[in-house]
Amino acid sequence: MAAALREIPRHHDDGKGPIRLAVTGLPIGLRGRDAPNLPIGAVVEPKSSMNATLADLVGSLQSKGRIGADDVLMLRRAFYTPSLIATEDIEALVRLDKAVGDRGPEWGDFFAGAVVDFVVHQQEPADYVDAAKSHWVMGVFTGELACDGALEALLRIVETAINVPAELASFILGKVKAAIAAKGSVDAANVAMLRRLVFAGGGPGNVGVTRDEADALFDINDACKAGSNDETWPDFFAKAIADSLTAVSPFQVESRDEAAKDDAWLNQRESAGSFLSQMARLPDVKGAMHDIFHPFDDEADEWTKAEADMETAETEAATITEEEAKWLLGRFGAGALGEPEQRLIDLLKSISPPSLDRLSEVMSRAA
Question: H helices of 117-148, where?
């Protein structure tokens, strides 16, 4: 059936990308498609503003107990037909995800895209997740989640947003960990999901692995030791833990406030007369001549310092500290080491020789 799906003409979007033209600028959770026309501070009477067509579809699918490819096609059309996405629309999809366990693979992609469009792109601040968005997401996705639609939606939030609060990142990490641990084994799809999560740009580590993420990987490994795990799990586990111990992220994401200040500066408009009057008051002939003959010197100096700082940080991170060694020994515990842990030790031997003394106890147990 999936191969026969036809393309739906776009209104704002077909669920695959951001709804750039539908930014409300309203606090998340405010109900009503006519809310943008209300005066600031107006009291809004509670009422449902859910898309009527979508409401009928959701009710029908809950009764049927299955979501197929054609159903997703109709849901996509109904969901993206209005110019704005109402909070009730998303909440209805979340209820549908929880209520119907029999659904085709098309559902997860549609559902995750819809959540990201609403949370990350439509609600202000666009492309960022602030505290209000974070609290709403955690409230809507409470309880046990399956390893498909809901988890994919949460994962895409932290992948798509420029930055998410640490509280939400921890919440998403906990949901993914709980879902995998409950199965008792790590399959290939789980490894791919974990890789996307720990290296997501919007997370607290930016593309690096944090201590919380490393702890979660150890927790999953402990819970799944007796399971039939995918062959890619030991390698991913070892590299991710080693990254948390010996690497430093080269990316520092700008906060929303910092980005807003940059935008305000770029949007400033000065008249030619104002610019010339400032030049007359503060002449810098020497500096102007230097800029003319050496236009890239300042940029080169800036990059040289940044590269030097990065090299220093990488050198310091490459050596495992006493605190990190104690943490690692504690995570290995007193039992026999499995393949993931042994793979980690071998990797640390090759990339961090100065740390061998601190890890001698672990090395001898692995031998």
Answer: 131-140
